[in-house]
Design brief:
alpha+beta; Tetrahydropterin Synthase, Chain A; 9 strands
Length: 324
């Protein structure tokens, strides 16, 4: 840098002019020109550096994990970056658009729906969705999340309305756990053309209007009481039938067992008599048998507490004690 000192102008310069200013000589003018050129070169270098930095910044494209990057050139999508990282584009000529890749939450407006039995209900639902085909998303929804959510909301509401219109109110209230699955299945592939995939549709609140809620609840309670009474009566009838069948089966079993026991006893007595007949099939054994039976009869008679036993002359017992 060349330092210009005014005192040097006054010391070495030309004499003052008519206006009183010091007129520099040729050497001083050259020094000033060199200073101007040096400053100009530095300014130009700084401007060029800034321009290069801006061009580099415009050339770099950073793609995050939760987004797609669409590169445009002359109003047409040149390419789409799916992987996260750093890529490059032509500055000024090419521009970029960010498309969300993560799961989005769309809260649907509260709406009225009509059931199969013409009952009004209030539905409050939300949708989870994501972009899976960014090119179709750009072509059909112009790459706009708001426009895509408008399509999603309309299709989801139509699916909700169609499913509920095919079900009575009682089934909707009792089957709320499976209602979301039916609505989701009814959507089908309606949103594939937009490059959008439905992750889930859930119903936060599915309730009755306030003006007829109490009346519906009372009617439902009455219906449930009637169903309970009917089930109780049917259960009592089934129990009576089961008891009758059980009693009949038990009586048959007892009758069969009694008959079988009587038959077994008869067979046993018959075998007993046959054994006795075989045991006492001669005269000596017959007399011994008569002797044993007479003793048994006398034993029974003395057990009554009477020490006197009166017998006839022809009694078998008398013949035991009296032998002519």
């Amino acid at each position: 840098m060349v330092r210009i000192d005014l005192n040097q102008f006054r010391k070495y310069g030309r004499p003052p002019g008519d206006d009183g200013n010091v007129v520099p000589d040729g050497e001083t003018v050259d020094a000033m020109n060199m200073l101007r050129k040096s400053i100009f070169r530095r300014v130009v270098a700084i401007i060029v550096l800034i321009v290069l930095l801006l061009i580099f910044r415009q050339s770099v494209v950073i793609t995050h994990p939760n987004e797609y990057i669409a590169v445009w050139q002359f109003g047409e999508v040149k390419r789409i970056t799916y992987e996260s990282g750093v890529s490059f584009k032509i500055p000024v000529i090419q521009t970029t658009t960010v498309i969300p890749r993560d799961v989005r939450h769309y809260d649907m407006a509260i709406s009225d729906v009509i059931t199969q039995d013409k009952k009004s209900m209030v539905a409050d639902s939300f949708v989870l969705w994501k972009v899976v085909d960014p090119l179709s998303f750009i072509r059909k929804a112009s790459g706009s999340v708001v426009q895509a959510e408008s399509f999603i909301g309309n299709n989801s509401y139509n699916s909700l309305k169609n499913v509920i219109s095919r079900l009575p109110q009682s089934d909707i209230i009792s089957g709320r756990d499976t209602l979301a699955q039916q609505i989701f299945a009814n959507l089908g592939n309606a949103l594939e053309a937009y490059g959008v995939e439905m992750v889930a549709i859930e119903t936060k609140r599915l309730d009755l209007p306030d003006d007829n809620k109490n009346a519906v609840y009372e009617r439902m309670i009455s219906e449930r009481n009637n169903i309970a009474a009917q089930n109780t009566a049917e259960g009592d009838e089934e129990a009576r039938i089961i008891r009758n069948e059980t009693d009949k089966t038990v009586n048959i079993l007892i009758s069969n067992a009694t008959a079988k026991a009587a038959e077994t006893i008869a067979e046993g007595e018959q075998q007993y008599m046959e054994i006795l007949a075989q045991a006492y099939n001669n005269e000596e054994r017959a007399e011994f048998y008569s002797f044993v039976r007479a003793l048994d009869a006398a034993k029974v008679a003395f057990r009554r507490g009477d020490n006197t036993l009166i017998l006839g002359a022809d009694s078998p017992i008398a013949r035991i004690f009296y032998n002519e």
